[in-house]
Each structure stands twice: as C-alpha cells, then as structure tokens.
Amino acid sequence: MTAVEPVSLGLPSVPARPLAERRRSRRIQVGPVAVGGDAPVSVQSMTTTLTADVNATLQQIAELTAAGCQIVRVACPSQDDADALAQIARKSQIPVIADIHFQPKYVFAAIDAGCAAVR
C-alpha cells in the first residue's frame, strides 16, 4: 500500500505562533465560566429579542447555547425588561448578563433576579 500525497487546496498555512499576544488581565467568573487571565476564550453573544418577551428570549438563548455560546447578554432598557430577568436567569442554561441602559435601579433588579453579571 502506498502513501497518499496531500493535495494543496491553495489555503494559507496555519501561523506557527498566535497572531497577537494576549493582553494580561485578571481572571473572573461569570457564573461557571472563567473569563480573562489564562482562561480559554469564551463564546459570548447577545439576544436580539425584546427581553420582556420571556419565551422569545429563552428560545433565542437555547439556540445560542446549541450553537456553542457560553455566556449571553440581554438588553434591559425598561422596567418590563427588568421584571423579566428573574424568569430568564432562572431558566437559562448559560449565564445571563444584564445589559443595563441608563437606569441604576435596574442593576439591583438584575442582581436580585440572579443574573451572573451586570454591564
């Protein structure tokens, strides 16, 4: 049996070293996911649904999780969105970060709701 020669597809070769060195940072935990420091790069995304629509938001989070997402952000620009955070954080399979829009009182709602982080 003879060895088969590899066929060139014209693709560039994989660089021998990283394209850029990682910036030193402090490692934190976002729920069970380590971020920063020497932790592996985590896959994060943000929902595009109205956060107040709990079912649509949870459906999108499930789809993101199936695609390999490890952390998800949800927008929180209104009181209705803040009120929905508890259900979303409780039912999400991955850590939820509340993306607060100009209302400090929503920060406390997100913390009380069980969000993994607030931004």
Strand content: 15-25%
Helical proportion? 25-40%
- Spell out the helices and strands N to C: EEEHEHEHE
Mean pLDDT: 92
Word description of this protein:
This protein has helices at residues 54-66, 79-91, 104-113; strands at 28-30, 33-35, 44-46, 71-76, 96-100, 117-118. By secondary structure, it is of the alpha/beta class. The strands form 2 sheets. Strands 3-4-5-6 form a 4-stranded parallel sheet. It has a two-stranded antiparallel ribbon with strand order 1-2. A hairpin with a 2-residue loop joins strand 1 and strand 2 (33-35). Helix 2 (79-91) runs parallel beside helix 3.
Quick overview of this protein structure:
With about 120 residues, the protein is α/β, with parallel strands linked by helices. Helices cover about 30% and strands about 20% of the residues.
Protein topology:
Blueprint: E1 28-30, E2 33-35, E3 44-46, H1 54-66, E4 71-76, H2 79-91, E5 96-100, H3 104-113, E6 117-118
Parallel strand pairs: 3-4, 4-5, 5-6
Antiparallel strand pairs: 1-2
Helix pairs in contact: 2-3
Features of the shown structure:
18% strand; 119 residues; 6 strands; single chain; alpha/beta; two-stranded antiparallel sheet
